[in-house]
Model the fold of this input.
Amino acid sequence: MKSQTLKENKDFRRLYYRGKSVASPCLVTYAMRSRGGVRYGITTSKKIGNAVERNRSRRVIRAAFAGLEEQIGGNWDIVFVARGKTSHVKMQRVQKEMAEHLKQLGVINEND
Done:
């Protein structure tokens, strides 16, 4: 199942206020049940660094999510927030942390 991206500011704000969140040094993940399939968004603020670092952070997060996308069951809205370390670590580390977050939030089943 192909996921869609979140683009509307109201969708991001809804997740920040009403969604559950988990944080780690490389990533913050917000998730909440939705109606229409899996939708995800990525946020990188100017605190992360210059445009090159922000773009790398987004690329790393997108690649990590692509590897876990098949394991997601149900309809979810998910937002990933990059942190300062995100652009300096390998995609595998981000993917490992992302998988942990999604398990804690109930997006991925533990036995997968």
